[in-house]
Amino acid sequence: MKIVFASNNKNKIIEIKHQLPADIELLSLEDIGCHEDIPETADTIEGNAILKADYVTRKYGYDCFADDTGLEVNALNGAPGVYSARYAGEQKNAGDNMHRLLLELGNNPDRSARFKTVIALNLNGQQHLFTGLVEGNITYEKAGEGGFGYDPIFKPENLDVTFAQMSLDEKAQMSHRGRAVAQLVTFLKRY
After folding, report:
1. pLDDT of 135 over the 90 cut
2. Is the dihedral of CA 141, 143, 147, 151 positive or negative?
3. Residue 92's closest CA among 40, 144, 16?
4. Phi-psi map region of 158: left, alpha, beta (phi>0 left; psi -120 to 50 alpha)
5. Which class for 156: exposed (0-12), middle (13-18), buried (19 or more C-beta within 10 A)?
6. Which helix H or strand E contains 122, and what residues bound it?
7. 113 vs 39, residue with greater confidence
8. Catalytic one among 37, 54, 63, 68?
9. In this model, does residue 163 exceed pLDDT 90?
10. Closest alpha carbon to 49 in 140, 116, 139, 114
């Protein structure tokens, strides 16, 4: 089975390929000749995932899936949420985003947060949504060299390491994206 993942984010592609069975071939946007930035103009994480999947299906005719992820920090009323990738500006720089988040949190003792990933799958004219959540806390400083995005400042609940300090296997088992992809894989295997 071939399926398009509506992303050119190399880190996400690596993480998702790592979880897919060998009989599912993953194609990126680059692989299908899509080089434009698909607008993420929805005001929800679900909405952005649906926009991206629908764009690829409509414009290129492929069965595909797309994801959107947000980090929701309780002390910041759920921010950055749907704006996580561009929290510090349109340049979408992870270092800038983390810096802004840590600055806004300051010494606030409430560091609780959650990561949420929604995957929208368009397959044979039907759409299916899969959601992965993970609760945790924002650290006071970065730790770890792995992962991407906010991984160096997010510690999952009941663990003493950030996502950036985990191997791909460890992260896949407990991360928001890992949980959403596991649901997607289960669905595709039954299909």
Report:
1. yes
2. negative
3. 40
4. left
5. buried
6. strand 112-123
7. 113
8. 68
9. yes
10. 116
Cis peptide before 21 (omega within 30 of 0): no
Res 11 pLDDT > 90: no
Q: What's residue 173's pLDDT?
A: 86
Where is pLDDT greater, at 43 or 190?
43
Q: Which of 76, 95, 77, 75 is nearest to 85 (CA)?
A: 95
Q: Beta strand pairing status for 2-5 and 64-73?
A: parallel
Please, what is the end-to-end C-alpha distance for the chain in angstroms? 11
Domains in the chain, ordered, with CATH?
Answer: 2-190 (3.90.950.10)
3-state class percentages of the chain: helix first, strand second, coil last, to nearest 5: 40, 25, 35
Three-state SS for 123? Answer: strand
DSSP 85: G
Whether the per-residue pLDDT at 191 is higher than 90: the answer is no
pLDDT at 147 over 90: no
168-188 CB burial, b ≥16 within 10 A, e <16: bebbbebbbbbbbbebbbeeb
68 is an active site residue: yes
Token digits for 14? 């690596």
Separation of alpha carbons 15 and 18, rounded Å: 5
Instruction: Name the 3-class secondary structure at 104.
Output: helix
